[in-house]
Each structure stands twice: as C-alpha cells, then as structure tokens.
Task: inverse folding
C-alpha cells in the first residue's frame, strides 16, 4: 500500500497567511515535494525493516540546504531562522520523523563543532552540506530531565580530557562524525547544575569512538537511525580552548539556551506526523466503501476528520507564533513549552484517530498510519516530557513552588 500513501499526498490546511512570505512558501513547497518524491517511498520501504536513512538521501537533503538553514551564510549556510527550520521539519516529518530530526544534526550543532580557525570553518561548511554531522549525548541511566544529576565525568590530563561514565539515549552515535558529550568536569561545586562541560568527541563515521562501547536500544519506533547506550572508558579527547559553544563548566546554560528552538522543532515534527495521518485518513475515507458508499460519507468519520484538521491547524499557528518570537529575539520559554506540549499531545490523538479511521488496515504495516502513531507517541517524551512542559508553564504562571520548612 506504499504506492497509495505516496499518491494520496496532498497538503490540507497550512495557511498561516499572517506569517508566510513568498520565500517561505517556496521553501515549504520545496520540502513538501522532496518529501513526496524522496522521503515517503524510502520510509515506506525501510521503516518496516527498521532500516537506517540511506546516505544518498542525506546527501540530497544537503544539496537542498536543509542541514544549513540556520547556519550563518559566512559558514556556508542559508542564514535563515527558526521559522524556516520548522517549516522544513514539518514537511519532512510528514514522511519520516527521523528524517525531520536528522537536520538538527547540522542546524542545531554548528556551534558545537570542535577545532579552531580554518579547520573548524571547513567542518562547519561541510556540516551545512550534510557532510559533517553531530550526535548529542546528555542523558544517562539515572539522569534525563534532571540534567543536574549527570555523573559521567571528564578530568584533565595534560592537554586532554579523560572521559569515564555511561550515557543513554544517544541517537545517531554510530552515523555521526562527532558526539557532543555533556560531562561533569567540576565535582567540587555546591551547585548541581554547575561544572558541566560539552566535549566534542570526533570519530570515524559508522563507528563508535575509540574507548567507547555500546549497544543499540530496542525501540518501538523512531526508526531510520539507531539510538545507543554508551560506556566511556578512559576516552581521551584533546582540550580545545577556543571554538564550540560551551565554555568549561557552562554546558548547563548552553543546553538551556537552546531549548526554545528544540521544542519548536519538536512541535513541527509532531504537526508533520499529524498532517500525514490526516491526509492518509482522508484518502482512505474516499476510497474505502462500506454499506454501499465511501466511509467518508458517514458523519462519524467526517466529524473525526474535522476535529483532526482543527487541532493540527491550532498547533501549527501556535508554532508559527513561537518561531516568530524566537527569531525576533524575544524570550518565550513558556510559549515554547506550550507549543511542544500542545503539539505532542495533539499528534498522539490525531494519529490514533487516523488509525481508527483505517480500522484493521491501520493496524498493519501495509499503511504508514501505524508509523505516524508510533512516532507521535515519542514526541510526548523527548525534549522534555509533557509533564515537564506543564511544570514549566505552571511555574511561569503561578511561580515556582517553594519548599515547605
């Protein structure tokens, strides 16, 4: 049924006339056509096999500039904003969420590129083309949203860092050209969030770094790439005094500063999944006949589709607003949490309803609906769970809860 899924690709909604320029419409259309022609066929073929994103697809994305949307022009990027980044991510997620996610390994990583001077500049230029990508290793078996509990340590030995400890949920650890590892470098500080440093560990593509062992985590979705548990055993990394985005001991602050964009990006991915579910459900409602007529004639189905479309558009417009606020330089941590929370919760509801419309067919891997459903469930967990977002929003509205003495 992959052919039916490709053939039914037709964008519904996504107006956003208050925010859209002609250039943005053209970029969205480019990403939409690329998803239609390149991403969906690959996803329909490889996701049931739990296969990885093909390198040639990454190269095609690099040629279109998708990895360098937010990288400044002086580094070979497009020099655009979070708005354009989210526009592209939404369209790519409509095909395969991992494809919408891998562009962050360029756009969200160029400040973490190791090295200095021309050497570092050359790496960033490669990154903008999708030829030098990063992975992020922060979470641990006992540290997820509680970043201050990170226990992986790095100590100085001459002109090198020596890293020891375990990490969890490191996606693309094998395929990346470097891993940005958040490690504790100051164990004497009284502040738990202090003393964390981002250390870029370069490695051969397709392998784990020397001194690092690990295994792929068996996931129920988010296929297209592997997510690893990693163990660092006296891993030595040159100390780079200049370059990168994190000064020694300041990684907590650099991670926190990037959360608004990361959460807008997650909202975009959630919306893309929901959009895919809506479009495929509509196509199926036209084609599937019961009791002598298309099921799209039944009010129960029509009302489901009406509700799905409304929720998607509400999330999209909130995402446009948040992306615009970020690009305007205004702080919007509350609103970024709102859109991440709302879009993720919406995506799970909408993809579930899409599966319901397909009935038994939706519960097979013959249709991409179950892929949207499985991947949408993850959006409520990563980049801060829905409960973490609710806490951030309520703390902004009511103030933080003070501990009772």
Result:
């Amino acid at each position: 049924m992959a052919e039916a899924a490709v053939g039914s690709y037709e964008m519904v909604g996504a107006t956003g006339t208050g925010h859209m320029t002609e250039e943005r419409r053209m970029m969205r259309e480019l990403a939409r056509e690329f998803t239609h022609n390149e991403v969906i066929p690959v996803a329909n073929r490889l996701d049931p096999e739990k296969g990885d994103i093909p390198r040639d697809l990454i190269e095609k994305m690099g040629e279109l500039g998708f990895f360098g949307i937010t990288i400044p022009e002086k580094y070979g990027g497009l020099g655009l904003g979070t708005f354009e980044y989210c526009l592209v991510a939404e369209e790519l997620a409509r095909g395969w969420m991992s494809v919408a996610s891998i562009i962050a390994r360029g756009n969200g990583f160029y400040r973490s590129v190791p090295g200095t001077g021309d050497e570092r500049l050359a790496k960033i230029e490669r990154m903008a083309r999708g030829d030098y990508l990063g992975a992020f290793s922060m979470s641990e078996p006992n540290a997820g949203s509680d970043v201050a509990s990170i226990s992986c340590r790095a100590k100085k030995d001459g002109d090198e860092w020596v890293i020891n400890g375990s990490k969890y949920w490191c996606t693309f650890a094998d395929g990346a050209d470097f891993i940005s590892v958040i490690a504790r470098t100051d164990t004497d500080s009284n502040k738990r969030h202090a003393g964390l440093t981002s250390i870029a560990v370069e490695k051969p593509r397709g392998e784990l770094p020397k001194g690092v062992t690990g295994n792929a985590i068996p996931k129920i979705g988010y296929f297209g790439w592997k997510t690893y548990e990693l163990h660092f055993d006296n891993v030595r990394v040159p100390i780079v005094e200049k370059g990168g985005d994190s000064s020694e001991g300041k990684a907590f602050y650099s991670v926190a500063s990037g959360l608004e964009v990361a959460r807008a990006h997650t909202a975009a991915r959630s919306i893309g999944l929901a959009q895919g579910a809506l479009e495929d459900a509509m196509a199926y409602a036209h084609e599937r006949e019961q009791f002598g007529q298309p099921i799209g004639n039944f009010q129960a189905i029509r009302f489901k589709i009406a509700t799905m479309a409304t929720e998607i558009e509400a999330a999209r417009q909130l995402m446009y607003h948040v992306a615009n606020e970020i690009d305007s330089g205004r702080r919007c941590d509350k609103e970024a949490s709102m859109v991440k929370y709302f879009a993720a919760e919406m995506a799970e509801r909408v993809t579930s309803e899409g599966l319901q419309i397909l009935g038994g067919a939706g519960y097979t891997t013959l249709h991409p609906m179950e892929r949207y459903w499985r991947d949408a469930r993850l959006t409520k967990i990563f980049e801060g769970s829905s409960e973490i977002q609710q806490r951030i929003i309520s703390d902004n509205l009511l103030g933080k809860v003070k501990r009772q003495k």
Q: What stands out?
A: Strands lie at 134-137, 153-157, 160-171, 178-184, 196-202, 212-216, 227-238, 289-290, 293-294. DSSP finds 13 helices and nine strands in the chain. The domain at 2-128 is CATH 1.10.540.10 (Butyryl-Coa Dehydrogenase, subunit A; domain 1).
